[in-house]
Structures are given as structure tokens and as C-alpha cells.
Amino acid sequence: MFRSLLTTIILAVILACNPSMHKAVETPDQSSQTSVSDEVKVTAKPNRLPVDPGVRIGTLENGLTYYVREHHKPENRIEMRLVVNAGSILEDEDQRGLAHFLEHMAFNGTKHFEKQALIDYLESIGMQFGSDINAYTSFEETVYMLQVPTDDAQKLDSAFKILGDWANGILLESNEIEKERGVVLEEWRLGRGAQGRIQDKQFPLMYQGSKFAERLPIGLPEVIEHAPQEAFERFYRDWYRPDLMAVVVVGDLEVSEMETRIKTYFDGIRGPETPRKRPVFDVPDHEGTLFSAETDPELTRSLVQILYKKDVEPFQSEADLPKSFVRMLYSMILNERLQERAKESDPPFLMAYSGFSGMARTKGAFAQAAIVNEGQFQRGIEALLHEAERVKRFGFTQSELDRARSVYLRNLENRVIEQDKLPSASLVSRYVSHFLSPETSPIIADTVMLEYAKSLLPNIELADLQAVTADTMTDDNRIILMSGPEKEGLAMPTEAEVNAWIKETAKGELTAYKDDQLDAPLIPKIGEPGKVVSEEQLDKGITLWTLENGVRVFLKPTDFYNDDISFSSYSPGGFSLVPDEELLHARIANEITEKSGFGAFSQIQLEKKLAGKLAHAYPYIGNLFEGISGSCSGKDLETLFQLIHLKLTAPKWDETAFSSMKTQKREWLRNRLANPSTVFYDQMNELYYDNHPRTQSMTLEDVDRLDPEKALAYFKDRFADCGDFTFVFVGNLELEVIRPLVETYLGSLPAVGRDESWKDTGVRPVKGVHDLTVYKGLEDKCSVNIRFAGELEWTTNEVLAAQSLSKVLRIRLREILREDKGGVYGVSVGTSVMRWPQGRFNSYIAFGCSPENADDLIQAAFDEIMRIQAEGVDETVLEKVRESFIRQREVAVKENNFWLNTISTYDKFGLDLARLDRFEERVKGIDVEMIQSAAKRFFDFENRMKAKLLPEKMKPADQE
Fold first, then answer.
1. CA distance linking residue 339 with residue 354, whole number of Å
2. 594 within a domain of the structure (yes/no)
């Protein structure tokens, strides 16, 4: 696996415009945790940030660094990392791509685990390739990741043995290298497409004058195909050495024991007698502006990025904190303004982001990026620059600064409260960063960071933030990157035009920003509370209340987190109750109300009202059910209930929000069919569902038909009668505290006594055998998607059989298509079983490959399924499946979401919660007969669709 900076920047735009995708707050240091009950005092040596005492850091005699921490989330698990301070930037010319290729070879034969024995062993103890076992290679590092159980000393020793083998025991056998070439080429092939072609053109400009420009981790196909064994061995010998490595171990094990094991398995590793110097690579400064405007016929979006290169500043002392806080607050507030611009009736961009990011260890960038309306680069660029210029001239408002401080402090306080309940993996990532960049990634406890924040944030003034723009946005070291669809009549701006826009922006007229806040209660008046009229104590510590208005409430107190309460709800109906001709408006009902706001508040005003609170509630309407779900901290429990009541009872539509939504939908849809995958899946769904109106995608014509009043009316109708709603609350809750809130805010929800349920709308997969080939796209690659469907009587045994078969096939098809044939990078396979609106199953197999290999790989997959149907499956595979179920359940039952989903599912389907106690017994009953029988039911070759997406150049002449 490899990482791309351009993809990271684009993702940052999306994240910045979708705050709900964020959960944890990021602090400037990415620090670790200590006990929240500790008495915290900042007593570091003068001017030096204190190291978190919770982590033990050491160095072996051979130079290897280690980080060890005891942490109990999840229980009986340990997160392990081997960090190698070497990536593609260190490759010789004949090794381009071998840093990443070598990462693959670490799973294909080591000193103690020949060929595929390493993956076989880890799967045998319940770990899954991809989620528990993985690795990545970037420009400057390679990181191997492993999660293993700690309840068995032998398994723990084997895990350390694996890490030791990766460090000093990868075999690099020639026959295994030859087999893996195809897998790496397929990973390269998956990355090809419009964005890959744009990246090929723009990366050399971004990294002009540096080695980064020619060392993308995925490498060159010709090197991947033909590099000799000696080139692999040379890279491994030169750069996999103790002084460039760290071992990070965090988990449910005593620190001294982990430290002892590290010394046992790594102390004997020796590096070369005359090691190559590990150089530090820089991205040089440049005068003026570097410019690139690229098009591609398969691009569906127009993107602009403006980067201002900056040297990375050290972050090690207390003196570095204020500037870091200033930059953080500056980005928070500026992005809030950009999000507001995206919500205008005629927005200048669809999404936008500004913030500080990294380019290399010694070079960072202040990045401005926006997805703009087609043909409107000028508006998008000017809007980005205007908002920065507005700050430069007028600064921010005091209310914006106060709000940003409140948001940051509250999130940091919450993280301190949850410090012992954070997953071990989140701690591991901080230690990895510290090893790779110690000058910029100190290890400081969140409790200490909170004290620093409380002390320093009040001293940050508006003038401090106002100065950031002038210090950051300069005429030199600027890079402007634009990309857009290649189509007739659409021209990209020239460099001269963009420079003129920039000059005009700097001297154009601007007015100061006005902070649109509404100081009003969320709910001005609440109806008459409804009392709990019945109470039942159920299995697993679950309580069920029924209110006077008919609302049912399940409650399960847990201690999985210290300050988290999550909830979901459901009511039968959903889209199924809407006629086909009105489905369009029903599907946008939730979106238009969310964008318009609720009650007296616009969406922007509501977000500002909730700043500094950890409470979220999101209404939804699905095919068969509607409801609302979300979460909160205990401190904000009443706010959560107010939001639930507000959003269910006071929706509205706003003309500005509706106009903005239509503009954005037009832009998302305008070029969607330029993407080959979109065309492929559209045609596949048309065939699979016989062009049923409920399975069709929205079109530009549909956008013009949207009627907000119809959408709002549908939303109101779905939530007009809450008497059939069921709520489930799970988390750190106390029944006596939550009861008056339930009675006040849920007990007063409207109930009119409608007797309704969902309807069967007749959506069914077609029967029979169907083949589809779509010719679309420039790249020499093929996408394969095979589907099987049929009717069955839903039972919990069928669900277990489907899940078990899916696990079996993921193992076997990975082994056959990837490991044996080297024809794919990955295979997706699975079976889902549905009870409503009709008992059915859907099975699928999907993968990408070279066009010339597609038919052979499809047949190989079919052959394996038919072999399982005829002969069953080997017991060793079944044991992997059983162990995987048990290990996954061990972790899942300690998560609030597991109980939310379980309680909801068991209630909807009328199941007995006591079944949960028989889970391990049922899993141990998975046998050859179950899998063989399931394979026959769920992969009926008389009812299947086989679809292939091939490049356009392969289209037969008679189909032109």
C-alpha cells in the first residue's frame, strides 16, 4: 500500500467541508495520554516540552529505538509496529518501486515463516489480512502493522518473531518475487485513471528540484516487472538496519514484559559494517509562481490548489506552542468562513479548504484548495483569496475567536476524559510520528496539553491571527495547480489570467465579515411531557421504557467509554410509502431540511449555537425505516435531547439553502458519466434490477424538477407521528438522570396513532444468466463484478452461514487469485441476507485486473466456488473462520455501536437476546456441510450476472 500527497490534499477539502466526519480533535503535537485523575503541573525543563511519562522509550545497543506503553483498549490485544525510516526516496535508479515491492515481500516468506505461512498463521489465530495485518510505504518510511491477541504467550512470541523477521529475515526468494510482480502491477493499475494522469503531470512541478518528483512509492512498471533479485537485496541490506528502525508496542500487557521481548528479538540484529548515509531530502525554494493547468477527459471535477511552500518549523519547546495554537485557530476560523461561502445561493465553489500541511519532513505548505463550478475557476480562486485577504485587512471577530477556542478546548477536554478508552492504534500513530520526525512531533500527554491550552489560548489576540495571512501567502514559493474536465468549449485559464486575478483580488473592494449568530433557545417552548407508563428489565442489563405517546426507549448503560452516549431510532415506512413518481423529492427531503436548518436557526446559526458542545443528532429516511441517530457527552445530554426534538418537529426549507443545493447537485452530476466506473455501475444496475425506477441515479433533468415544498412535506409526514418510534440509548448513562429528559423531550413528540409499516416496492434482481461488457475508459485495466441473487427464508442460521461462507471465500480467492496467480491486488467477496421486504440474498465477487487476465481469473473464482459446492472446504480454513468470528466478537462486545445495532436488530426481528450467549457455540458448529450447502444456495450459477468494464480501445468494431 502506498500514499499520495495529492489525494491527501483533496481529502482535506472534503473533510473540511464535512465536519461530521471528524470525531477526535487533533492537537498540534498529536500527543498521548496519561491518567485524567493525575494532578497536572507543567514542570518541564526550561523551554522544553515534557515527555509523556506513560510511554517508555529506549534504544538498544544496535541503535534500534523502541516505544512501549501499557493500554487496555481493546482488551487482550496488542498493537505492534515496525517502523523503517526508509521509503521510496532512498531508491537507486534501478530500484524505483522496490521500497514498496519489498513491503509486499515481507508477507511472502521470512526466516521463520516460509512463503504464505505468515498470513496462514495470523489467520489461524483470528487476525484478518488488511485490518489486523498490513503495511504502507511512503516517500520516506515503511511501516508494518500488526494486531494480535495477548492471552497466549506463544502467540505473543510468534508476533514478536514476525516483527523480527520483517526487520532482518525477509527471504526475498526469486520465485516468490516473480509471483508477486503481478500483484504489485495490479496495485499500480488500480491507481491509474484521471487522477493518476493528473498526478503524473503535477507532482514533478510540486516537487521541482527535488528527488521527490521522481520517486513516487508505487514506482515504475518496467522496474516492477524486471528488477533483479539483487536490487531487492541491496535495498533491504542498505536501509533495513537497526539505527533506522523503531519497534512500537502498545497494548494490554505489562511494560517490562514487552520491553524484555523487544530486547530478546531485536538486540541481536546487526547492521552493515559500512552503512550508507541516510540523507535528508529537501524541497528547494523557488522564486515566483509555478503554474500547472491540466485537463483529462475522465475528470468529473474542477479543482484548484494554491500552495505556499514553507520550511517546517521545529516544535519542541514551550515557546513553539503559541504559534502552533495561532495557526490552528486561524485554520479553524477561516475554514468555517469557507464553509459558509459554499452554502450561498450561488456558491463560488462546492467545497473549499485552507490549512497547513506537510510536503516533506523539512518542507510544509499553506494550502488553499477548492472544488469549483465548471468553467468558474476565476470565481473559485477569487473567493479563496478574498477570504484570506479579508482576514488580512479586517481580521476575525471576537465571537469567532471565542467560538474556536471553545471548540478546541472542549474537544481536548473530552479526549483527556477518554484517555484510557482511546484505541491503542491511536497512541501507536503518535509514537511512529515521533520516531520519524522528533523535531516536530513531541510526545506530550493530553493532560499537559490541556493545561497549556487553558493557559495560552486566552492570551491569543485577534491581531495574532490577522498576521498569519501576511506571513503565509507570499509571491515567491507559490504553486498553483488546476485540473478539470477535458471537453469541447471548456478552456482552462492561462497563467497570465490567473496572475491577473490574483493582482485584482489584492486591491479589490472588500467589507468586513459579519458573524451571523442567533442567541435564542434551541426550543422556545416544549409540549407537555409524557410519562413512562411501563418499564421492563431485559437480559444483558437492558431496560425498556414505554411512554404515554407510544414511544419505546431501550437503555443499556456501559462503561466502554468514560463520556459517550450514542443512540439510534427507527420507525417503519421510509421511502417505501412514496409512489415511484414522488421518490425524487422524498430522497432529497432529509438533505434539504438539514441544509435549511431547524426552528429559528439556519444551518450556519445552528452550528454556531452548538460550538463547544459535543452533541449531534442526524435524522434519516431509508428505504424501509426513518429515524434519527447521534451521540453526545454526558455534559451535553440535555442538548442532545433538545436537538432530537427540534429536528423531528421543526424542519423547514430555506430558499438560499435550496438554491445552493441545486447548484452543487448540478455540478456533481454534470460530468459524472465521464468516469468509466460510474457508467459501468449504472449499466450494471439497470440490467440487474431491470431498470426499476427506484434503482436509477439522479440526473441533471431531475435537479430541474426538484420541488422543495414537496420534499419538506414528505419529511414532515415521515416524522408527524412518532408514536411508533423506538429509541436505543447506549453508553455512560444513568437511568435516573436520563429519565426526566426522555419524558420531557421524547414524551412530548407528536403521536397521532397511525397504523403503518413499510411496503414492498417490488425491487428484485433479474433471474437467469446475464453477461454485460462495458467499453469505457483510457487505461489498460478491467473491473469485474459478478452478482448472484435469489429468494430464501430468512433465519439467523442463514445469516451465520452467509457470513461464514464470505470469510471462507475471502481467504480462498485471495490465495488463488492473488497469491497463486498474481492476477489481482485484492478481491471483494461477500453475501448479504435480507429479511425485508422479502427473504432474499445477494452475493458478489469483485476485483480489478489486467484485461487479458479477466476471463481466466473469473473462471478460477467460479472453479473454486464449484469445488466447494462439490467437495466442501479444508478444515484449516474453517478453523481460521471460527477463530476470526470469536476474536472479532471479543472486541465488538466492548463497543457501544455493537449494542446499538444488536438491540435494534433483535427488536426489529423479534429475537431473544439470550441468543448472544450461544454465539461461540454456534460458531463452533460451523462445519464443512454448512459451507458446502451455503455455497450451493448463495452461488446459484443459473441466476447470476457477470459484468466487465474494459477500456474503450477494446470495443469491437461492430459495436462502434
1. 11
2. yes
Quick: pLDDT tens for 264-305.
Answer: 999 999 999 999 999 999 999 999 999 999 999 999 999 999
pLDDT at 901: 97
Shared domain for 709 and 808, answered yes or no, is no
- Within a domain: 857: yes
SS3 54: coil
Contact 327, 496 (CB under 8 A): no
Residue 860 lies in a domain: yes
Count of beta carbons in the 10 Å neighbourhood of residue 438: 13
Dihedrals φ, ψ of 89, to 5°? Answer: -65, -20
Positions of E strands within 646-779? 726-731, 769-775
Work out whether the CA dihedral 454, 455, 459, 465 comes out positive or negative: negative
Please state, in angstroms and as integers, the Cα–Cα distance from residue 333 to each residue in 339, 396, 454, 542, following that order.
Answer: 10, 8, 19, 42
Domain match, 810 and 675 both: no
Contact 54, 32 (CB under 8 A): yes
Grid coordinates given for 317? 519547546
Instruction: Provide, for the chain, the percentages of residues in helix, strand and coil under a 3-state DSSP scheme, each rounded to the nearest 5.
Output: 45, 20, 35
Q: Are residues 91 and 239 in the same domain?
A: yes
Assess contact for 26 and 440: CB atoms under 8 A.
no
The three cell numbers locating residue 463: 491581531
Distances (CA, A) of 657 to 602, 713, 918: 9, 16, 51
CA gap 891, 74 in Å, rounded: 6
Nearest by Cα to 314 from 444, 430, 438, 434: 438
Task: Mark whether 566 and 461 lie in a shared domain.
Answer: no
Would you state the cell numbers that stand for residue 157, as one nine-digit string? 512470541
Burial 20-30 (b: 16+ CB within 10 A, else e): eeeeebebbbb
Note down the domain range covering 173: 49-266
**Residue finishing a domain among 473, 507, 541:** 507
CA distance readout (Å), 211 to 93, 96, 221:
11, 12, 19
pTM: 0.93
Same domain, 902 and 953: yes
Contact predicate 334/276, CB 8 Å: no
110: domain CATH number? 3.30.830.10
CA proximity to 366, closest of 398, 386, 388 = 388
Plot region of 322 (φ>0 → left; ψ -120 to 50 → alpha; else → beta): alpha
- Report the chain's terminal Cα–Cα distance, integer Å: 38
Given this model, what pLDDT does residue 696 score? 93
Residues 463 and 499 grouped into a single domain? yes
Non-local (6+) Cβ contacts of 118 within 8 A are: 107, 109, 110, 162, 165
Dihedral, CA atoms, 46, 49, 55, 56, nearest 10 degrees? -50
Quick check: is 280 in a domain? no
Residue with cell 493528473: 198
* pLDDT single digits (tens) 680-732: 999 999 999 999 999 999 999 999 999 999 999 999 999 999 999 999 999 99
Q: Report whether pLDDT(16) > 70.
A: no
Tell whether 486 and 536 lie within a shared domain: no
Same domain, 200 and 314: no
Neighbour count for residue 958 (Cβ, 10 Å): 5
Domains held by the chain: number: 4
* pLDDT higher than threshold 80 for residue 453: yes
Summary mean pLDDT of the chain: 93
Phi/psi for 949 (5° steps) reads: -105, 115
Report residue 98 as a C-alpha cell. 522496490
Which residues sit opposite 263 in a β-bridge?
none
